[in-house]
Amino acid sequence: MRESTKQLGLRIPRDQYNKLQDYAKANEISMTELIISIFDSFLNSHTPGLCPHCNFQNPPDADYCMRCAWALSERAQETKENLLALLAQNPDIMNELMNRFADTEIKKRDDP
Ligand SMILES: [Zn+2]
């Protein structure tokens, strides 16, 4: 498990990594599956107008981000693919997602 996160270039603070690992164990899933579920929840929690690239809140009907020109509503699938590619190339963004997930999502799921 640690092998695969190492391969992805993840740098997660130890306590957060432990939190993620505990969560994976408690739900009988692998760290890989957990990481995928983090991405899924990130991608699926897309708020209309919220840019998944730079996090700028655009008007809900915006097609492109006003800050970074990222494709929003009209090309959702393409955006998703771009985002996955972006994440694969940017371990820092992935780390940030993992950290946020450790901080907020797990707390939410454990204690709704
Ligand atoms: Zn943007």
Structure notes:
The chain is mostly helical and 112 residues long. The chain has a domain of 51 residues. It is 60% helix and 0% strand. The chain has 5 helices and no strands. The protein is elongated, with a radius of gyration of 15 Å. The N terminus is likely disordered. The structure holds zinc ion. The site of zinc ion has 8 residues, from loops.
Key words describing this protein structure:
binds zinc ion; mainly alpha; elongated
Describe this structure in a few short sentences.
The protein contains five helices and no strands. The protein is an all-alpha fold and 112 residues long.
Overall geometry comes to elongated
Helix content: 55-70%
Number of strands: 0
Order of helices and strands: HHHHH
Bound molecules: zinc ion
Show unreliable segments. 1-7
Rounded Rg: 15 Å
Largest sheet: none
Beta-strand percent range: under 5%
Structural class given helices, strands, pairing?
mainly alpha
**If helices are DSSP runs of H or I spanning 4 or more residues, what is the number of helices?**
5
Rounded to the nearest angstrom, the distance between the terminal CA atoms is 28 Å
Q: Mean pLDDT, rounded to whole units?
A: 73
